[in-house]
Design brief:
This protein has 341 residues and is of the alpha/beta class. Helix content is 38%, strand content 15%. A hairpin with a 5-residue loop joins β11 and β12.
Amino acid sequence: MSGVLCFTSINYHYLAKARVLASSLKRFHPDWHFVLCVTDAMPDGGTLDLAGEPFDELLITQEVLGDLGPGWFFKHDVVEVCTAVKGPLLEKFCDRGFDAIVYLDPDIAVFNPLQGLIEALERSDILLTPHQLEPDDQYYQIVDNEVCSLRHGIFNLGFVAIKPSAEGRRFARWWSARLTDFCVSDERLGLFVDQKWCDHVPVFFDGVKILRDPGYNVASWNLSRRKISIDRSGRILCNRKLLYFYHFTKLGPVGDAMTQRYAKDNIEVYELWSWYRRKVEDFAFDDLPDGWWALGQFSNGAKITSEQRRCYRDRPDLQTYFPDPYLAEGNSFYEWCGRNA
């Protein structure tokens, strides 16, 4: 196969991580077309020149998915919306003429060629990676990992790949529809953004390949069963096989705590994290004010609260009456919130 589109989804605060992802991918696959999908807008004075970036294309999702309307974006917090757009974008990318479409989370880095994914898609239509490949045996590991997967989904949707065949397109349409309507974190409904939906995939669709190679999507949730090493030639391995990509989830104290809990004396894991921190710092993007997210504020600059989002999401009457809830002037949802605090 030839012609691979790879994309990731961010707001601008994740730009440094997306740069690490794209540059690490381009090291092995300079011919892959990498699309940066941004659900955000630059503050005044901020710039991003693609000529100096590892991305081939920049898409602003509010423009590409404008038919969903401002009310749809308003109903989601930053994590929910950057996840929700993955489905509609995947569906749109099916019409781009590429032979394979790969999604990778921005906090992933690639360490070896991913040609095996493309070869797998020659025989399959949909590729998924489970959080765990084998059971744990310690009580705390079972709670941290297996119980967590029961709550958040069997498959980690930091990665998904499809072939735009009839079945691949059917999956993309279905996932797009579900994420358009139900991509929220709501324990009452048993939802965790996009992930739990894909528990259905092996039953709903044919041509599904579950990748059981331990070198794909290594992270804290499976380190209890995956040993990282580096051979004499400098290749990074997992369980003595190639490490293809590592998921550096939760850079900071939480990620550190979970890494220490499961890496223990596997020094190579800490070396990977040290490398990743340096790369993120090298690719830092300094044009953003603290806490900036363009879709996190009303048109007058007032911050949108989670209560206001939930209220709007749960009230179809408000959605009909205020089709653009970001507006703060006149008879607006912002004014309504002030009167009905």
